[in-house]
Hints:
Elements: E1 6-12, E2 15-24, H1 32-39, E3 47-49, E4 53-56, H2 58-68, E5 76-78, H3 81-95, H4 107-144, H5 151-161, H6 166-189, H7 197-235, H8 238-244, H9 249-287, H10 292-303, H11 306-331, H12 337-368
Parallel strand pairs: 2-3, 2-4, 3-5
Antiparallel strand pairs: 1-2
Amino acid sequence: xxxxxxxxxxxxxxxxxxxxxxxxxxxxxxxxxxxxxxxxxxxxxxxxxxxxxxxxxxxxxxxxxxxxxxxxxxxxxxxxxxxxxxxxxxxxxxxxxxxxxxxxxxxxxxxxxxxxxxxxxxxxxxxxxxxxxxxxxxxxxxxxxxxxxxxxxxxxxxxxxxxxxxxxxxxxxxxxxxxxxxxxxxxxxxxxxxxxxxxxxxxxxxxxxxxxxxxxxxxxxxxxxxxxxxxxxxxxxxxxxxxxxxxxxxxxxxxxxxxxxxxxxxxxxxxxxxxxxxxxxxxxxxxxxxxxxxxxxxxxxxxxxxxxxxxxxxxxxxxxxxxxxxxxxxxxxxxxxxxxxxxxxxxxxxxxxxxxxxxxxxxxxxxxxxx
Length: 371
């Protein structure tokens, strides 16, 4: 009915009775609570009759409780059960201790946090060595007893982590090759050396961009999936159940993912190289008027197959690192969802960082070898 909040105060022999009517809500209360507070201020034996109210919310309950505290003695309240429960909840909230103020951290606490982070690096190194040792044992068992390997899981994971990633890998590297060709065309046209754009495309795509883009995509796609899958099993205590049954989690969970990514990474790198060259060819053909025959002939004569093998040689190493980081983070998940999210994030960040670092190390090695 949207009746504004109001009250009627009547003095009787046993004390005053305030009968509240209307809607005691944040929208319809207005100044009724303040008028009620002023009307019963200092009185004794006041009774608040809330049975005739239409509605009441937390704002109205707070106003009623605040007004009842202005009486000389404890005010009696008559109300329906749901209103009584609401008043009790608001009263508990009023009596609750205040939220502690934000304490500004001192310089000592900042340095303590940094020191603990540096100290935890050694724990991470130790855990990494333990994980690598256990993984090497699982790989050794797989080599000595190939029949014990779960090949169905390996091929299923290879399809999901490798073959299903081909469209996104090919699309991304296609546009990367096109961007490299556009940059080369704009720069080399000023010198009248447009034809050298083919060399730039071939070397950049075959040597660096195909493997780097593939590894970064797999770091965000497969490393996070590995960490989430194993971490969810760790949270549900499925890994503990496997150990009770005598099944090594490294044989059942880690090695199949390790082998799947090791098999599919070179294939994805090859697909990325083809897609990158197609992207560069499309730009060279449309912008520089270089025909496909000229493009591929110059690619064979000046670029050669060496740069392709240089890029492909990084694939197994990056596959091992990405799969290992994803599985390791999954095995370290705790029993809560926050730990799962933190480990999945760490898997992606560490895998991408490791990809860039390993690629830089390979670049230095091949530069020293003059390859």
